[in-house]
Design a protein that fits this description.
Rossmann fold, 2 domains
Length: 348
């Protein structure tokens, strides 16, 4: 009887506890002071918490990887930009060095060319009157230039092809050489010149064009008689300033004399430099900027033209000489090869 009562009591207690548990589980709003984690429906297992932690860790790791990748990409961009800037700087520096080297090479080539031109005038002398004397004074002021380191001068005021044959006296107009007046052909011989540049006419045309041309040629022949190996280049007689012409000395006769002397030069294989046309204005007179005295004498600007004309003449002559040398060497080589071929044929 007691046992039955005990079983009934235990069952009752069990049912009551089960009811309480069920009622507690169905409660959606926690009681005052009770935490949410006590709600059975929201209670998470350790496995779920671990999975959430792992997911969060993976998100953090991914975020860190993305941030690191961005940092690396930015670093690579900066490094690339620095490399490109450095390469651009090096390229600019290299280009500047190449330009500088090219400029230096061009300058050296130009200097060498000027030296070659200067050497062309070795053993050369320019003879003439007061206009030529003005050029010699210009040359003395620019003696550092290669052309004037070799070109010599025998000039005098009022000197002419006519009075070149006059007896030497205190009144004669022969150029001075080694402290005294001498006949031009003797001075040329004493200095050992091989090439003579001549400028005459302005003190001669009073005698007429034909007479002056004949006397000019006579002087050249006299110089050559004393200096058989001499060669000539005739410089054209420069014009007169407008309004300064007088009788036989006028621009028309100057042009006629130049035509005659150019023909004489061509017939004898001599050179001819036409400076006159470079100094002439549109009216056939000596241009204002090239005249120093409203007559026939010339300014430094005119003598710059003289210098340029002489240098151009030398340059052209050097090109001809180089071409002739190359042709001669080529012909010599061809002749040698032809001779060797004939010998081989004979031996065969």
């Amino acid at each position: 009887m007691m046992t039955k009562s005990l079983l009934t009591l235990a069952l009752t207690v069990s049912l009551s506890f089960t009811y309480m548990i069920s009622a507690f589980a169905d409660t959606t709003t926690p009681g005052p002071g009770q935490p949410d984690t006590w709600t059975v429906s929201e209670t998470k297992s350790a496995e779920e918490l671990l999975l959430e932690q792992q997911a969060l860790a993976e998100q953090q790791a991914l975020a860190q990887q993305q941030a690191l990748a961005q940092q690396q990409a930015l670093a690579e961009q900066q490094a690339l930009a620095q490399q490109q800037a450095w390469e651009a700087q090096q390229a600019a520096l290299q280009q500047a060095l190449e330009i500088q080297a090219a400029q230096q090479a061009a300058l050296q080539e130009q200097q060498q060319h000027q030296i070659e031109i200067g050497n062309y005038f070795k053993d050369s002398v320019l003879v003439g009157d007061s206009v030529a004397l003005g050029f010699s004074n210009y040359a003395a002021k620019h003696s550092a230039l290669p052309i004037f380191q070799n070109l010599q001068f025998l000039t005098a005021g009022s000197f002419s092809v006519h009075n070149a044959f006059s007896a030497i006296s205190s009144k004669s107009k022969h150029p001075m050489y080694k402290g005294q007046q001498r006949f031009i052909w003797d001075s040329i011989n004493m200095m050992g010149a091989k090439h003579v540049y001549t400028f005459f006419g302005l003190n001669d045309l009073y005698a007429g064009v034909e007479n002056t041309a004949a006397k000019y040629l006579q002087l050249l022949m006299q110089i050559k008689a004393v200096n058989p190996d001499i060669d000539y280049t005739i410089i054209s007689t420069t014009p007169m300033y407008k309004g300064s012409e007088k009788k036989g000395l006028n621009n028309a006769n100057i042009r006629a004399l130049n035509a005659s002397m150019a023909q004489i030069a061509a017939e004898n294989g001599w050179g001819f430099i036409d400076v006159a046309s470079l100094l002439t204005d549109s009216e056939g007179c000596l241009a204002k900027q090239y005249c120093s005295d409203s007559y026939v004498h010339e300014t430094n600007a005119a003598y710059v033209i003289w210098q340029t004309a002489l240098e151009k003449y030398a340059e052209d002559r050097l090109e001809v000489e180089k071409s002739e040398t190359a042709t001669a060497e080529s012909m010599s080589e061809e002749a040698t090869q032809s001779s060797e071929t004939q010998q081989n044929t004979v031996q065969y």
